Amino acid sequence: MEVLLGLLAIEPMSGYDLGLTIRESIGHFWNESYGQIYPNLKKLAAEEFVTAKVQRQKGKPDRHIYSITKKGRERLAKWLAVPPQPEVPRNELLLKLFFSAQVTPDLPIAYLERMVATERGLLRRFEQIHEAIDRSRQYPDTPYWKMAARFGELELEAHLRWAEEALAELKELNEMSGRTAIDAAAAKEKRNAGK
Predict the structure, then answer these.
(1) Is there a contact between 8 and 75 (Cβ–Cβ < 8 Å)?
(2) Is the pLDDT confidence value at 100 over 70?
(3) Rounded-to-integer distance, Cα 163 and Cα 91, Å
């Protein structure tokens, strides 16, 4: 719920606008679905952390625009004062890579090639993110948005560098396992020819 208070501290928004803003800004490191946003907005309104104003629209459903209250700002400030808890990472790709001696190297190679393509695409997206932040200079939050975006950018660069290194190693392993199989087949053929 604090994510909604934080976004509403920037400016009043509808539930739909909050979802778009999450996807366009913090969605790279934090996710909230519309299924979470609307019930949480109702709870926040019931507890008087936000207020809702109905905005009539011609030919469209009414929009409910939410604004943070003084009580909501106090709750947000309290939450911001609590140190973040370390998270236990869960990464299925690393887990599968850890056990990849059980399969041929071409399987993890395919996983990493897909990861490299995805990470490169996401990294290119950061140009747009930086441009969007630069266009939002009217908000006092922009220096903090830049810091968060830079963290994401550097993290992606690190993932990409690691994936490219691991991919090179896997391809080498694949070549070696191919040579080993060829050598074993040749040795078997030689033994059979000697019989």
Answers:
(1) no
(2) yes
(3) 14
Provide Rg for the chain, Cα atoms. Answer: 26
DSSP three-state, residue 150: helix
How many whole angstroms separate alpha carbon 19 and alpha carbon 36? 10
Minimum mean pLDDT range among 33-37, 43-47, 51-55:
33-37
- Report the pLDDT value the prediction gives residue 64, as an integer from 0 to 100: 94
Decide the pairing of beta strands 50-55 and 63-68: antiparallel
- Unique residue bearing structure tokens 């922009």: 142
Per DSSP, helices labelled H in 11-64 are 15-24, 34-46
**Cβ-count burial of 7 within 10 angstroms (0-12 exposed, 13-18 middle, 19+ buried)?**
buried
Mean pLDDT of the chain: 89
pLDDT at 11: 94
Residue spans of beta strands (DSSP E) within the chain: 13-14, 50-55, 63-68
Residue 187: per-residue pLDDT = 55
Give first-to-last CA distance, the chain, whole Å.
77
